[in-house]
Amino acid sequence: MVTGGTGYIGSHTVVELISEGFEVVIVDNLSNSKKNVLDGIERITGVRPFFKQIDLRSKRKMVSFLKKQTDIEAIIHFAAYKAVGESVMQPLKYYHNNILSLINLLSLMLDYSIPNMVFSSSCTVYGQPDHLPVTEDAPVKEASSPYGNTKQIDEEIIRDSVAAFDKLKCIALRYFNPIGAHSSALIGELPVGVPNNLVPFMTQTAIGIREQLSVFGDDYHTPDGSCIRDYIHVVDLAKAHVAAVRRLLENKNKANFEMFNLGTGQGVSVFELIKVFEKVSGVKLNYKIVSRRAGDTEQVWADTTLANKELGWKAKSTLEETLQSAWDWETNLKRRYEQE
Protein backbone atom coordinates (compact mmCIF):
# COMPACT_ATOMS: atom_id res chain seq x y z
CA MET A 1 0.00 0.00 0.00
CA VAL A 2 1.36 3.40 -0.99
CA THR A 3 -0.13 6.35 0.87
CA GLY A 4 0.12 9.56 -1.10
CA GLY A 5 0.68 7.41 -4.16
CA THR A 6 -0.70 9.93 -6.66
CA GLY A 7 1.71 12.58 -5.37
CA TYR A 8 5.04 13.51 -6.88
CA ILE A 9 7.40 11.02 -5.23
CA GLY A 10 4.61 8.53 -4.61
CA SER A 11 3.64 8.19 -8.27
CA HIS A 12 7.24 7.64 -9.39
CA THR A 13 7.67 5.02 -6.67
CA VAL A 14 4.48 3.25 -7.75
CA VAL A 15 5.91 3.01 -11.29
CA GLU A 16 9.14 1.46 -9.98
CA LEU A 17 7.26 -0.96 -7.71
CA ILE A 18 5.03 -2.17 -10.55
CA SER A 19 8.07 -2.47 -12.83
CA GLU A 20 9.68 -4.71 -10.19
CA GLY A 21 6.64 -7.00 -9.99
CA PHE A 22 4.86 -5.63 -6.92
CA GLU A 23 1.10 -5.33 -6.74
CA VAL A 24 0.26 -1.82 -5.55
CA VAL A 25 -2.78 -0.25 -3.93
CA ILE A 26 -2.83 3.54 -3.54
CA VAL A 27 -4.51 5.54 -0.80
CA ASP A 28 -4.53 9.32 -1.31
CA ASN A 29 -6.87 12.15 -0.37
CA LEU A 30 -5.89 14.15 -3.51
CA SER A 31 -5.18 17.28 -1.45
CA ASN A 32 -2.05 18.02 -3.49
CA SER A 33 -2.42 15.75 -6.51
CA LYS A 34 -4.89 14.71 -9.18
CA LYS A 35 -6.48 11.38 -9.96
CA ASN A 36 -5.41 11.52 -13.62
CA VAL A 37 -1.87 10.73 -12.43
CA LEU A 38 -3.16 7.13 -12.56
CA ASP A 39 -3.44 7.50 -16.35
CA GLY A 40 0.27 8.32 -16.57
CA ILE A 41 1.19 5.39 -14.33
CA GLU A 42 -0.91 3.07 -16.49
CA ARG A 43 0.60 4.34 -19.74
CA ILE A 44 4.13 3.80 -18.44
CA THR A 45 3.63 0.39 -16.80
CA GLY A 46 0.60 -1.11 -18.55
CA VAL A 47 -0.97 -1.57 -15.10
CA ARG A 48 -3.57 0.65 -13.43
CA PRO A 49 -3.07 0.34 -9.67
CA PHE A 50 -6.09 0.05 -7.41
CA PHE A 51 -6.89 3.50 -6.01
CA LYS A 52 -8.96 4.60 -3.02
CA GLN A 53 -9.53 8.23 -2.09
CA ILE A 54 -9.23 8.38 1.69
CA ASP A 55 -7.85 10.90 4.17
CA LEU A 56 -5.62 8.97 6.59
CA ARG A 57 -6.86 11.14 9.44
CA SER A 58 -10.15 9.25 9.14
CA LYS A 59 -9.41 6.01 10.97
CA ARG A 60 -12.95 4.79 10.40
CA LYS A 61 -12.57 4.95 6.61
CA MET A 62 -9.18 3.25 6.77
CA VAL A 63 -10.64 0.42 8.87
CA SER A 64 -13.33 -0.11 6.25
CA PHE A 65 -10.67 -0.16 3.51
CA LEU A 66 -8.29 -2.56 5.27
CA LYS A 67 -11.07 -5.03 6.05
CA LYS A 68 -11.26 -5.63 2.29
CA GLN A 69 -7.51 -5.45 1.58
CA THR A 70 -6.33 -8.49 3.49
CA ASP A 71 -3.02 -9.21 1.75
CA ILE A 72 -1.01 -6.03 2.32
CA GLU A 73 2.54 -6.92 3.36
CA ALA A 74 4.15 -3.49 3.46
CA ILE A 75 3.26 0.20 3.48
CA ILE A 76 5.20 3.07 1.97
CA HIS A 77 3.97 6.18 3.76
CA PHE A 78 4.30 9.39 1.73
CA ALA A 79 1.03 11.12 2.62
CA ALA A 80 1.97 14.40 4.33
CA TYR A 81 2.04 18.13 3.81
CA LYS A 82 5.56 19.10 2.78
CA ALA A 83 6.09 22.83 2.16
CA VAL A 84 8.57 24.39 4.58
CA GLY A 85 7.37 27.97 4.10
CA GLU A 86 3.68 27.08 4.37
CA SER A 87 4.33 25.12 7.55
CA VAL A 88 5.73 28.28 9.20
CA MET A 89 2.50 30.10 8.31
CA GLN A 90 0.13 27.19 9.11
CA PRO A 91 1.80 25.06 11.81
CA LEU A 92 -1.42 23.49 13.17
CA LYS A 93 -2.36 22.22 9.71
CA TYR A 94 1.00 20.43 9.52
CA TYR A 95 1.00 18.99 13.04
CA HIS A 96 -2.56 17.73 12.70
CA ASN A 97 -2.10 16.05 9.33
CA ASN A 98 1.46 14.75 9.45
CA ILE A 99 1.32 13.32 12.96
CA LEU A 100 -2.26 12.05 13.23
CA SER A 101 -2.05 10.21 9.90
CA LEU A 102 1.06 8.34 11.07
CA ILE A 103 -0.45 7.44 14.45
CA ASN A 104 -3.55 6.06 12.72
CA LEU A 105 -1.43 4.08 10.28
CA LEU A 106 0.78 2.50 12.95
CA SER A 107 -2.20 1.43 15.04
CA LEU A 108 -3.88 -0.04 11.96
CA MET A 109 -0.69 -1.95 11.09
CA LEU A 110 -0.92 -3.61 14.49
CA ASP A 111 -4.64 -4.32 14.15
CA TYR A 112 -4.33 -5.79 10.65
CA SER A 113 -0.94 -7.53 11.01
CA ILE A 114 0.95 -5.41 8.48
CA PRO A 115 4.54 -5.60 9.75
CA ASN A 116 6.56 -3.41 7.37
CA MET A 117 6.71 0.33 6.75
CA VAL A 118 8.98 2.54 4.69
CA PHE A 119 8.59 6.08 6.00
CA SER A 120 9.10 9.23 3.98
CA SER A 121 11.38 11.35 6.16
CA SER A 122 13.54 14.35 5.38
CA CYS A 123 16.99 15.86 5.73
CA THR A 124 15.25 18.70 7.59
CA VAL A 125 15.57 16.53 10.73
CA TYR A 126 19.25 17.53 10.81
CA GLY A 127 18.55 21.27 10.90
CA GLN A 128 21.84 23.01 10.04
CA PRO A 129 24.43 20.22 10.55
CA ASP A 130 27.75 20.96 12.26
CA HIS A 131 29.60 18.88 9.68
CA LEU A 132 29.01 18.31 5.97
CA PRO A 133 28.30 16.02 4.25
CA VAL A 134 25.85 14.92 6.93
CA THR A 135 25.72 11.26 8.02
CA GLU A 136 22.91 9.33 9.73
CA ASP A 137 24.89 9.60 12.98
CA ALA A 138 24.60 13.39 13.01
CA PRO A 139 22.53 14.71 15.92
CA VAL A 140 18.92 15.58 15.21
CA LYS A 141 18.78 19.31 15.94
CA GLU A 142 15.96 21.67 16.72
CA ALA A 143 13.94 21.88 13.52
CA SER A 144 13.93 25.15 11.61
CA SER A 145 10.29 24.71 10.52
CA PRO A 146 7.10 23.01 11.73
CA TYR A 147 7.36 20.71 8.68
CA GLY A 148 10.82 19.57 9.76
CA ASN A 149 9.57 19.16 13.30
CA THR A 150 6.73 16.88 12.17
CA LYS A 151 9.31 14.61 10.54
CA GLN A 152 11.37 14.56 13.76
CA ILE A 153 8.30 13.79 15.86
CA ASP A 154 7.15 11.12 13.40
CA GLU A 155 10.55 9.40 13.58
CA GLU A 156 10.32 9.45 17.40
CA ILE A 157 6.82 7.95 17.25
CA ILE A 158 8.07 5.19 14.94
CA ARG A 159 11.12 4.51 17.13
CA ASP A 160 8.96 4.15 20.24
CA SER A 161 6.42 1.99 18.41
CA VAL A 162 8.89 -0.52 16.99
CA ALA A 163 10.52 -0.73 20.43
CA ALA A 164 7.17 -1.52 22.03
CA PHE A 165 5.82 -3.89 19.37
CA ASP A 166 8.15 -6.59 18.05
CA LYS A 167 5.98 -7.23 15.01
CA LEU A 168 6.69 -3.76 13.54
CA LYS A 169 9.70 -2.97 11.32
CA CYS A 170 10.39 0.37 9.70
CA ILE A 171 12.94 2.08 7.48
CA ALA A 172 12.96 5.88 7.45
CA LEU A 173 14.37 7.34 4.26
CA ARG A 174 15.71 10.84 4.82
CA TYR A 175 15.37 12.61 1.48
CA PHE A 176 17.40 15.52 0.40
CA ASN A 177 15.85 17.51 -2.49
CA PRO A 178 13.90 15.44 -5.08
CA ILE A 179 13.57 17.06 -8.51
CA GLY A 180 13.01 15.94 -12.11
CA ALA A 181 10.43 13.69 -13.72
CA HIS A 182 10.00 10.30 -15.36
CA SER A 183 11.82 10.00 -18.70
CA SER A 184 8.47 9.41 -20.46
CA ALA A 185 7.31 12.91 -19.36
CA LEU A 186 3.99 11.25 -18.46
CA ILE A 187 4.33 11.90 -14.71
CA GLY A 188 6.23 14.60 -12.84
CA GLU A 189 5.89 17.29 -10.20
CA LEU A 190 2.55 19.05 -10.57
CA PRO A 191 1.69 20.96 -7.40
CA VAL A 192 -1.86 22.19 -6.93
CA GLY A 193 -1.74 26.00 -7.11
CA VAL A 194 1.47 28.00 -6.77
CA PRO A 195 4.52 25.74 -6.36
CA ASN A 196 6.36 25.81 -3.04
CA ASN A 197 9.42 24.01 -4.41
CA LEU A 198 12.17 25.64 -6.44
CA VAL A 199 12.31 23.53 -9.61
CA PRO A 200 8.59 23.53 -10.53
CA PHE A 201 8.53 27.30 -9.92
CA MET A 202 11.60 27.52 -12.15
CA THR A 203 10.07 25.49 -14.99
CA GLN A 204 6.74 27.32 -14.70
CA THR A 205 8.56 30.65 -14.93
CA ALA A 206 10.53 29.48 -17.96
CA ILE A 207 7.36 28.30 -19.75
CA GLY A 208 5.48 31.54 -18.98
CA ILE A 209 3.03 30.42 -16.27
CA ARG A 210 4.80 32.43 -13.55
CA GLU A 211 6.09 35.93 -14.19
CA GLN A 212 9.21 35.76 -12.05
CA LEU A 213 11.19 33.38 -9.85
CA SER A 214 12.13 34.55 -6.36
CA VAL A 215 15.53 33.56 -4.95
CA PHE A 216 15.23 33.67 -1.18
CA GLY A 217 18.46 35.32 -0.04
CA ASP A 218 21.90 35.92 -1.51
CA ASP A 219 23.61 36.75 1.80
CA TYR A 220 24.16 33.24 3.20
CA HIS A 221 27.66 32.11 4.20
CA THR A 222 28.10 30.09 1.00
CA PRO A 223 30.39 30.71 -2.01
CA ASP A 224 27.74 32.62 -4.00
CA GLY A 225 25.47 33.66 -1.11
CA SER A 226 22.55 31.38 -2.01
CA CYS A 227 21.37 28.25 -0.17
CA ILE A 228 23.03 24.94 -0.98
CA ARG A 229 21.07 21.71 -1.33
CA ASP A 230 21.55 18.13 -2.53
CA TYR A 231 19.28 17.68 -5.56
CA ILE A 232 18.36 14.07 -6.39
CA HIS A 233 16.44 12.73 -9.39
CA VAL A 234 13.00 11.55 -8.26
CA VAL A 235 13.39 8.25 -10.17
CA ASP A 236 16.64 7.50 -8.32
CA LEU A 237 14.77 8.26 -5.11
CA ALA A 238 11.89 5.98 -6.12
CA LYS A 239 14.28 3.09 -6.76
CA ALA A 240 15.59 3.42 -3.19
CA HIS A 241 12.06 2.79 -1.88
CA VAL A 242 11.91 -0.49 -3.80
CA ALA A 243 15.25 -1.48 -2.28
CA ALA A 244 14.01 -0.56 1.21
CA VAL A 245 10.78 -2.55 0.82
CA ARG A 246 12.73 -5.60 -0.35
CA ARG A 247 15.09 -5.27 2.62
CA LEU A 248 12.13 -5.45 5.01
CA LEU A 249 10.24 -8.21 3.18
CA GLU A 250 13.39 -10.36 2.98
CA ASN A 251 14.22 -9.68 6.67
CA LYS A 252 17.61 -8.23 5.78
CA ASN A 253 17.19 -5.25 8.10
CA LYS A 254 19.76 -5.11 10.92
CA ALA A 255 17.41 -3.35 13.36
CA ASN A 256 13.66 -2.90 13.59
CA PHE A 257 14.12 0.80 12.88
CA GLU A 258 16.72 1.91 10.36
CA MET A 259 17.44 5.30 8.77
CA PHE A 260 19.15 6.08 5.46
CA ASN A 261 20.11 9.33 3.74
CA LEU A 262 19.01 9.58 0.12
CA GLY A 263 20.89 12.14 -1.94
CA THR A 264 23.69 12.47 -4.47
CA GLY A 265 26.37 13.59 -2.03
CA GLN A 266 26.85 16.83 -4.01
CA GLY A 267 25.88 20.29 -2.77
CA VAL A 268 24.50 22.68 -5.40
CA SER A 269 23.59 26.33 -4.79
CA VAL A 270 20.41 27.97 -6.03
CA PHE A 271 22.39 30.13 -8.47
CA GLU A 272 24.28 27.07 -9.77
CA LEU A 273 20.97 25.26 -10.28
CA ILE A 274 19.56 28.21 -12.23
CA LYS A 275 22.66 28.29 -14.44
CA VAL A 276 22.44 24.57 -15.27
CA PHE A 277 18.70 24.84 -15.94
CA GLU A 278 19.24 27.76 -18.33
CA LYS A 279 21.84 25.69 -20.15
CA VAL A 280 19.66 22.58 -20.65
CA SER A 281 16.44 24.49 -21.43
CA GLY A 282 17.93 27.28 -23.52
CA VAL A 283 15.68 29.73 -21.63
CA LYS A 284 16.99 32.76 -19.71
CA LEU A 285 15.17 32.79 -16.38
CA ASN A 286 13.55 35.94 -15.07
CA TYR A 287 14.40 35.94 -11.38
CA LYS A 288 14.82 38.42 -8.55
CA ILE A 289 16.58 38.19 -5.22
CA VAL A 290 14.29 38.66 -2.21
CA SER A 291 14.79 38.37 1.53
CA ARG A 292 15.46 35.03 3.20
CA ARG A 293 12.51 32.70 3.75
CA ALA A 294 11.62 31.58 7.26
CA GLY A 295 12.50 27.94 7.93
CA ASP A 296 15.23 27.59 5.28
CA THR A 297 18.50 25.88 6.24
CA GLU A 298 21.67 27.51 4.89
CA GLN A 299 23.40 24.46 3.43
CA VAL A 300 23.04 20.71 3.61
CA TRP A 301 24.08 17.73 1.51
CA ALA A 302 24.24 14.01 2.15
CA ASP A 303 26.78 11.39 2.97
CA THR A 304 25.09 8.41 1.29
CA THR A 305 27.68 5.76 2.20
CA LEU A 306 25.28 3.81 4.41
CA ALA A 307 22.47 3.65 1.82
CA ASN A 308 24.97 2.72 -0.90
CA LYS A 309 26.26 -0.18 1.19
CA GLU A 310 23.16 -1.49 2.96
CA LEU A 311 20.49 -0.90 0.32
CA GLY A 312 22.78 -1.58 -2.63
CA TRP A 313 21.51 1.68 -4.08
CA LYS A 314 23.16 4.75 -5.54
CA ALA A 315 21.87 7.91 -7.24
CA LYS A 316 22.91 7.71 -10.90
CA SER A 317 21.46 10.70 -12.76
CA THR A 318 23.49 13.84 -13.42
CA LEU A 319 22.10 17.27 -12.55
CA GLU A 320 21.81 18.06 -16.27
CA GLU A 321 19.80 14.89 -16.93
CA THR A 322 17.57 15.59 -13.95
CA LEU A 323 16.81 19.18 -14.91
CA GLN A 324 16.28 18.15 -18.55
CA SER A 325 13.62 15.66 -17.38
CA ALA A 326 11.89 18.41 -15.38
CA TRP A 327 11.88 20.68 -18.44
CA ASP A 328 10.60 17.88 -20.70
CA TRP A 329 7.76 17.31 -18.24
CA GLU A 330 6.84 21.01 -18.20
CA THR A 331 6.91 21.36 -21.99
CA ASN A 332 4.89 18.15 -22.39
CA LEU A 333 2.28 19.53 -19.97
CA LYS A 334 1.98 22.67 -22.07
CA ARG A 335 1.46 20.63 -25.25
CA ARG A 336 -1.26 18.58 -23.54
CA TYR A 337 -3.09 21.70 -22.32
CA GLU A 338 -2.92 23.29 -25.77
CA GLN A 339 -4.36 20.14 -27.37
CA GLU A 340 -7.22 20.09 -24.87
The count of strands amounts to 13
CATH superfamily, by name, is NAD(P)-binding Rossmann-like Domain
Helix content: 40-55%
Please state the overall shape, judged from the principal axes of the Cα atoms: globular
The amount of beta strand, in percent, is 15-25%
What is the structural class?
alpha/beta
Strand order of the largest sheet: 3-2-1-4-5-6-11
CATH architectural arrangement: 3-Layer(aba) Sandwich
Could you explain how this protein is built, in words?
There is one protein chain. The chain is of the alpha/beta class. It has one domain: NAD(P)-binding Rossmann-like Domain (Rossmann fold, 3-Layer(aba) Sandwich). The chain contains eleven helices and 13 strands. It has helices spanning 8-19, 37-45, 59-68, 84-89, 91-111, 146-164, 198-207, 234-249, 270-281, 305-310, 319-339, and strands spanning 2-3, 25-28, 50-53, 74-77, 116-122, 169-175, 177-179, 213-216, 228-229, 231-233, 257-262, 268-269, 287-290. The strands form four sheets. A seven-stranded parallel sheet has the order 3-2-1-4-5-6-11, sandwiched between helices. Strands 7-10 form a two-stranded parallel sheet. The chain has a two-stranded parallel ribbon with strand order 8-13. α6 (146-164) links the parallel β5 (116-122) and β6 (169-175). α1 (8-19) packs across α8 (234-249). The longest helix has 21 residues, at 91-111. The radius of gyration is 19 Å and the shape is globular. The relative contact order is 0.15. The model has no long low-confidence stretch (mean pLDDT 96).
